[in-house]
Design a protein that fits this description.
The complex is a heterodimer of chains A (about 160) and B (about 550). Chain A has about 160 residues and is α/β, with parallel strands linked by helices. In chain A, about 35% of the residues lie in helices and about 20% in strands. Chain B has 4 domains: about 100 residues, Sulfite Reductase Hemoprotein, domain 2; about 160 residues, 2-Layer Sandwich (Sulfite Reductase Hemoprotein, domain 1), CATH 3.30.413; about 100 residues, Sulfite Reductase Hemoprotein, domain 2 (Alpha-Beta Complex); about 150 residues, 2-Layer Sandwich (Sulfite Reductase Hemoprotein, domain 1). The chains are: A alpha/beta (about 160), B alpha+beta (about 550).
Chain lengths: ~160, ~550
């Protein structure tokens, strides 16, 4: 099994990303691409213990939400290291729609991205192959505070300063 | 000025530690060139032609004397004894060693400075009017709004990997001195008919290879919603800005390709959906921030001093300087003093460690311990009492910082060009020197009057050539340095892009062409009161073009 970052720990991944035509094993928790979810929703729900959906970073999650609400897991993509579109998708899912399931970041993700990913609401991070996972855990502690409100519940710095006086 | 609390200091200190570790991993071979590139740029570190270049942030151009002394120390200790002020009010060092950059940043952190987000595809330094707080035509001091925006933008987790760089500028005065219409977002602080404060938002301006003037997308956003409205714009841009082509990735291209009205609709829709409470500024938040920018303890007895008139009459050299390098102040008896970084023989915007140390002392003695950098690469001591102006001028003269040319033809904006920059196609500092030599006669400069030459060594446009009254753009033709001239640009209230004069000019033609442009203006102008830009807009390109490319000009015929 793949090793992933969940919370503040490196753990074995209990979800399987299904190849395009593969069928889910009985009782498995599987992640399928958005297109397959649209086409085979009922079949997948009947076969698998749980179905998560992987969403391209070009999707408008505001309009997509009715199709994915209630999923136990959503995976958002980093096709390239510096392509930050999914940061916005994550913030919208967490803060606007109150998505409570697992939000995972997958793709070309390196250690130096993880701090901001966590702030945007990703509880699970799946770094690219070969990335040092212990280093990623360390990087989650790079900063002890932040200026902006985000999906992690930190209040805006100016609001915290109100209480400070 | 703004003083860090423990939150600000913790973030800057932790950034130094983070970058120290990133540099260590890079030097140990654990971080690829490509990955390190994105990280070092977010700390202002470029790999240049000869050495790294480190760009240090000066938020909205405001510097305390102890910060100036630190910059002098950095120049002396880690560089070759000088620095270069940029058109984003920042300072750049051209000769630091990569492995020493974490140490430089640690030293800067001790005086509440950093290089965070001075490059990279993220929100860059927030700029504003260099006369903020002292200008007579100002509605309200823009700096508290700049600082609130700076904090919101710093390490914003959603907007740290944008399609391309993103620049904000603020203005709250009748005259736009911050070039707001050529920024990704230009914010004008305004009052509506009901007397309430708020913002007019301009989006999609920018220079570089597709220069554009920003479009107004909202005439009045309420004062409390500055950050919410900014968040809505940035979210639309982060989601929809192009990432397939670096030259089409700025927000100006998104606005253009989407259409201004459709873009406005996207922003308004996102803004309507935002949960606004977390980023809404309460009156007390604004008050707390304004308290960082209270006016210094001006001396009421400074008014009616009369020494300026007396010394102007007595000393013509002082009079010539005072005419160009003093700016009226909102408080009677005070003046804003421009420190020219455009002395003959110095690259525009360059300043030595000794000059910075001396300026820090002058700021302490004469201007409440503060200085400002301007987007046209000069410095300002903004709060000088009239009785001190003459003494200050004498001291500035001794430092070669009193060239009386502010706003005149030798007060050029100029990027580092091919001498330093790995992007440049052509040199710019040498051309600036040629122009300086041609126009050194001050009486002649004064006769020519206000004229802005802006020069970039490549089409990325760091020298703002597109909005120069005379713009000069360095281009590469078959491995040689050539120069494209534009006329009639402006970055002020009458913002406009310059018109191309015609074919590019060779290196040995360009200074002469500038001279002929100026001669044409002197012949064409209706009177001394019609400045270059007004004259150009009245008579158009034709007479200028005729002179620039006049027959009998051997070089032109040969080309």
């Amino acid at each position: 099994m793949n090793r992933i970052i969940r919370g503040d720990a490196v753990v074995a991944d209990d979800w399987r990303t299904l190849a395009d035509d593969a069928q889910p094993a009985a009782g498995a928790k599987v992640i399928v691409p958005l297109q397959r979810w649209r086409e085979q929703r009922a079949t997948l729900l009947a076969a698998a213990a749980a179905v998560g959906v992987r969403i391209p970073n070009t999707e408008d999650v505001d309009t997509l939400w009715p199709e994915i609400a209630g999923r136990p897991l959503l995976a958002l993509e980093w096709p390239k290291y510096g392509d930050g579109r999914a940061h916005s998708q994550a913030q919208i899912l967490r803060r606007r729609f109150g998505f409570k399931g697992e939000l995972r970041a997958v793709g070309e993700i390196g250690r130096d991205l993880v701090f901001h990913l966590r702030r945007c609401g990703f509880d699970v991070i799946v770094p690219r192959a070969g990335e040092n996972l212990a280093g990623c855990l360390q990087a989650l502690q790079d900063f002890s505070t932040a200026y902006q409100p985000a999906a992690d519940g930190i209040a805006a710095v100016f609001a915290r300063r109100r209480r400070a006086v | 000025m703004y003083r860090y609390d423990e939150i600000d200091q913790a973030l800057v200190n932790q950034r130094v530690a983070q970058f120290r570790d990133q540099t260590r991993r890079y030097l140990a071979g654990q971080l690829s060139d490509e990955d390190f590139r994105g990280l070092r740029l977010r700390n202002g570190l470029y790999i240049q032609r000869f050495a790294p270049m480190l760009r240090i942030s000066i938020p909205y151009g405001l510097l305390a004397s102890r910060q100036l002394r630190m910059l002098a120390h950095v120049a002396r200790t880690y560089d070759k004894g000088y620095g270069h002020f940029s058109t984003r009010q920042n300072i750049q060092f051209n000769w630091p060693k990569l492995e020493q950059v974490p140490d430089i940043l640690a030293e800067l952190a001790t005086v509440q400075m950093h290089s965070i987000q001075t490059s990279g595809n993220c929100i860059r330094n927030i700029t504003t009017d260099h006369l903020a707080g002292v200008a007579r035509d100002e509605l309200i001091d823009p700096r508290p709004y700049c600082e609130l925006t700076r904090q919101w933008a710093t390490f914003h987790p959603e907007f740290n990997w944008l399609p391309r760089k993103f620049k904000f500028a603020f203005s709250s005065s009748t005259s736009d001195r911050a070039a707001t219409r050529v920024h990704d977002i230009g914010v004008h602080i305004v009052r509506n008919a009901a007397g309430e404060l708020g913002y007019t938002f301009y989006v999609g301006g920018g220079l570089g290879r597709m220069p554009m003037i920003g479009h107004q997308i909202n005439a009045f956003v309420p004062e409390s919603e500055l950050l919410n409205y900014s968040e809505a714009i940035l979210r639309v841009y982060n989601r929809l800005g192009r990432r397939d082509n670096i030259h089409r990735a700025r927000i100006k291209v998104l606005v253009k390709e989407t259409g201004v009205d459709a873009f406005r609709e996207l922003v308004e829709t996102e803004y309507a959906r935002l949960d606004k409470a977390p980023l809404r500024l309460l009156p007390e938040d604004l008050e707390r921030m304004r308290a960082h920018f209270v006016p210094p303890p001006y001396d009421a007895a400074a008014a009616g001093d009369g020494s300026l008139a007396k010394m102007t009459a007595a000393d013509p050299r002082f009079a010539s300087w005072a005419r160009r390098n003093l700016h009226p102040h909102r408080v009677p008896g005070y003046h804003a003093v421009f420190v020219s970084l455009k002395a003959n023989g110095m690259a525009p915007g360059d300043v030595t460690a000794e000059q910075m140390d001396a300026l820090a002392d002058l700021a302490d003695r004469y201007s409440f311990g503060e200085a400002r950098s301007t987007h046209d690469q000069n410095l300002v001591l903004a709060d000088v009492a009239e009785r001190d102006v003459y003494a200050l001028w004498q001291e500035l003269s001794a430092l070669d910082l009193a060239t009386p040319n502010i706003g005149l033809i030798t007060d050029m904006i100029c990027c580092p060009g091919l001498d330093f920059c790995s992007l440049a196609n052509a040199g710019s500092i040498g051309v600036a020197q040629d122009i300086f030599d041609l126009f050194e006669d001050l009486d002649y400069q004064h006769d020519v009057g206000p004229i802005k030459i802006k020069m970039s060594g490549c089409m990325n446009g760091c020298g703002h050539h597109s909005v120069g009254h005379i713009g000069i753009l360095g281009v590469d033709k078959h491995g040689q340095e050539w120069y494209q001239v534009t006329l009639g640009g402006s970055a002020e209230n009458d913002a406009a892009l310059g018109d191309r004069s015609g074919r590019a000019l060779a290196r040995d033609e360009i200074a002469g062409a500038v001279q002929r442009i100026v001669e044409t203006y002197l012949e064409q102008r209706l009177s001394e009161d019609e400045n270059f830009l007004q004259c150009y807009r009245r008579v158009g390109m034709a007479p200028f073009k005729e002179r620039i490319y006049a027959k009998g000009d051997a070089a032109a015929e040969a080309a």
